[in-house]
């Protein structure tokens, strides 16, 4: 398996623009997690899905952030409008139905200027 | 709710020396415990996990960890580190499918 795939790997955008981050989970994994990592705040859980249904979105910072999982093979995290304080590395991670460990993608480094 | 405390934010050590990275957790119920490693510009990857059974678990790259229920600890150890072990290490607990991560410990191995 290719592992968790994230795109793009790097994104540079201007404040106010819409940003969409994408994640393809490992085949057969039914839980998907979006994290944000910064030096100041460390690793933060934004939202997680189980069987394509959002279970806990309490970590989503504000209404500018939204996440979807239309099917078992794809998820998006959207920021609209983006702000400089959204600059961070965003990770997608997945886990299988009989596993407890998470498999992380390589991350998307977002820079908002 | 569960929480994880990594007691050292940075651990410098010389090559071939032993190292221990400390992790304490709190939870009112039994949890599963993990250590992950993050190399620069990469995602986290699993080092080892404790689900049940023997309290001493062995992982990749010569690392091991011991689960101590009475002290609610899960410290990570390696008897002899290499330069390539330089990375950030995260302790995590999992309850009902959701993981809580510690703030991380940066291990720097010096020649």
Model description:
The complex is a heterodimer of chains A (113) and B (111). By secondary structure, chain A is mainly beta. Helix content of chain A is 0%, strand content 55%. Chain A starts with a strand and ends with a strand. The model of chain A has no long low-confidence stretch (mean pLDDT 95). Helices cover 0% and strands 57% of the residues of chain B. Chain B has no helices and 12 strands. Chain B starts with a strand and ends with a strand. The A-B interface holds A 4, 31, 33, 42-43, 45, 48, 50, 55-56, 91, 93, 95, 100-107 and B 32, 34, 36, 42-46, 49, 51, 90, 94, 97-101, 103-104.
Rg of chain B, alpha carbons: 13 Å
- Averaged pLDDT of chain A: 95
Structural class of chain A: mainly beta
List the uncertain runs of chain B.
Answer: none
Proportion of strand residues of chain A = over 45%
Instruction: Characterize the main sheet of chain B.
Output: 6 strands, mixed
End-to-end Cα distance of chain B: 41 Å
One letter per element, helices H and strands E, the order of chain B comes to EEEEEEEEEEEE
Estimate the helix proportion of chain B, in percent.
under 10%
Low-confidence stretches of chain A: none
Radius of gyration of chain A: 13 Å
Strand content range of chain B: over 45%
> How would you classify the helix and strand content of chain B by structural class?
mainly beta
Regarding quaternary structure, what we see is heterodimer
């Amino acid at each position: 398996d290719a592992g968790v795939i994230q795109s793009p790997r790097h994104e540079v955008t201007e404040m106010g623009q819409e940003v969409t981050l994408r994640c393809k989970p490992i085949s057969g994994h039914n839980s998907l997690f979006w994290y944000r990592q910064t030096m100041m705040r460390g690793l933060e859980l934004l939202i997680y899905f189980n069987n394509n249904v959002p279970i806990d979105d309490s970590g989503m910072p504000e209404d500018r952030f939204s996440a979807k999982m239309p099917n078992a093979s794809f998820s998006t995290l959207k920021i609209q409008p983006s702000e400089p304080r959204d600059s961070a590395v965003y990770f997608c991670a997945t886990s299988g139905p009989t596993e407890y460990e998470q498999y992380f993608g390589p991350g998307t480094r977002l820079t908002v200027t | 709710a569960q929480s994880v405390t990594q007691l050292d934010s940075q651990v410098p050590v010389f090559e071939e020396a032993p190292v221990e990275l400390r992790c304490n957790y709190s939870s009112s119920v039994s949890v599963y415990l993990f250590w992950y490693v993050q190399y620069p510009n990469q995602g986290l990857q699993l080092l080892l996990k404790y689900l049940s059974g023997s309290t001493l678990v062995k992982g990749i790259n010569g690392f091991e960890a011991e689960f101590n229920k009475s002290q609610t600890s899960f410290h990570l150890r390696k008897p002899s580190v290499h330069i390539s072990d330089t990375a950030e290490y995260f302790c995590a607990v999992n309850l009902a499918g959701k993981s809580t991560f510690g703030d991380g410990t940066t291990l720097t191995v010096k020649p």
